Amino acid sequence: MEIMQKLQFFFFVFTFLALGFEDTLALTTCSGTVPMKYRKETISIEDYGAVGDGRTVNTWSFQKAIYRIKHLRRRGGTLLYVPPGVWLTGSFNLTSHMTLFLAKGATIKAVQDTENWALVDPLPSYGRGRERPGGRYMSFINADRIHDVIITGENGTIDGQGGVWWDLWRNQTLVYNRPNLIELMHSKDIIISNVIFKNSPFWNIHPVYCTNVVIQHVAILAPHDSPNTDGIDPDSSNNICIEDSYISTGDDLVSIKSGWDEYGISYGRPSHDITIRRIKGSTPFAGVSIGSEASGGVHSILMENINIYNSGIGVHIKTEVGRGGYIKNVTISGVNLYDVHHGIKINGGSNDHPDNKYDPNAIPDVRDISIKNVWGVNIERPGSITGIKDRPFTGICLSNVKLWTANGDVIPWKCTDVSGCAIDVRPRPCTELTGSSTVG
Ligand SMILES: *[C@@H]1O[C@H](CO)[C@@H](O)[C@H](O)[C@H]1NC(C)=O
Ligand SMILES: *[C@@H]1O[C@H](CO)[C@@H](O)[C@H](O)[C@H]1NC(C)=O
Ligand SMILES: *[C@@H]1O[C@H](CO)[C@@H](O)[C@H](O)[C@H]1NC(C)=O
Ligand SMILES: *[C@@H]1O[C@H](CO)[C@@H](O)[C@H](O)[C@H]1NC(C)=O
């Protein structure tokens, strides 16, 4: 007991010193949600013939090393060490009980061989590639039906070299859906921490049909004009925690999804119990979003301490007729916005469908969304809530939401087909939200 108390005391002092006085001492984190395993065995990618010169293609070395981890099955798992250097490789699959460890100065770089890139089936909850019909190019790093996986290190880099893929998209010569940088599918007990993700061809980190995923202390970087480079998209997944990260990309920084129209409805796997906190960054699209693909349902979401600047939208909840499903029990608290075009936007009418087979009677149910403690400066349009006709969004509650334009103009909230409440909101909230106690 005494030792435990001492440890706790040192932990307390360390935390206190590390944070300084301005931060709360009881900083909640998800550390411990998924056990951080210290692997007994370490192998280096160099032992498998890899050369970190930035020119040698090391796909075979990654596959051999991971094959070895999978089949030798060392007790406690194996750590695959990637030393400093630039390790060019094609895409590869991870396996259970492994840690992929990137040393300081290590970069795993994707080859740009778009013509020979492997294909995989579309996701059942999407029915097709998100941007092209048919299959998808396999993600650069894949986890499929595995567990107990850690991707970490000393802030090494995973670089997707997405430029050629962005060009294929721009000049409309893409055949299939572009690869994600990392996709985790049907997997559980995953930690991703202390890694830099750069220039993904498409979405950066895509956990889909997953449980127990912790992503913390990562940086995700892509140019603002790179198409669809979403930061992290938890999709039909639960018990996901994303925290303490910096994300600056060309699309939504974090976006919670659960499948697309009739495919998402029939797959029927919601995203739920997701925490997103202490995220900072900038994008021409949304800082944090839910949807618009939410056909399997999204519930029990907590987003807190979000800092968004130089961006298109601060908080965006989006859906559409034909999506079906629901978005409910969402709490968003502690949002700072600076230089953001549109502060808070909640809308139906995303208007894109996988095909013409979607059900026009599949109307999403959007309710019980609480947005509080929001402070925004240099906001061009504070807020809008556009529900779906005859199926209004209900229980949308704003409290202590202050959004200021650069020049002091008062741009009113715009609302249709919504009910809920507003307390202490500036500028004055729309009359659809009752319980207003402030005049804007
Ligand atoms: C990687 O996993 C995919 C399925 O996710 C499979 O199609 C492919 O054959 C695997 N590749 C290797 C080299 O094991
Ligand atoms: C990695 O980056 C984080 C900040 O995101 C920093 O706190 C940590 O000290 C860095 N670690 C190393 C080994 O450089
Ligand atoms: C489209 O972009 C790719 C990648 O940069 C390039 O190889 C290809 O020639 C371009 N095609 C056209 C039609 O511009
Ligand atoms: C609502 O979501 C919170 C997380 O923000 C969760 O703790 C709570 O259990 C959920 N409530 C219900 C009724 O599902």
Automatic annotation (TrEMBL):
UniProt keyword annotation of Signal present: yes
InterPro entries: GH28_Enzymes, Glyco_hydro_28, PbH1, Pectin_lyas_fold, Pectin_lyase_fold/virulence
Keyword flag Transmembrane: no
Signal sequence segment: 1-26
Protein name: Exo-polygalacturonase, family GH28
MF terms in GO: polygalacturonase activity
Family listed: Belongs to the glycosyl hydrolase 28 family.
Gene Ontology biological process terms from the UniProt entry: carbohydrate metabolic process
Keywords: Glycosidase, Hydrolase, Signal
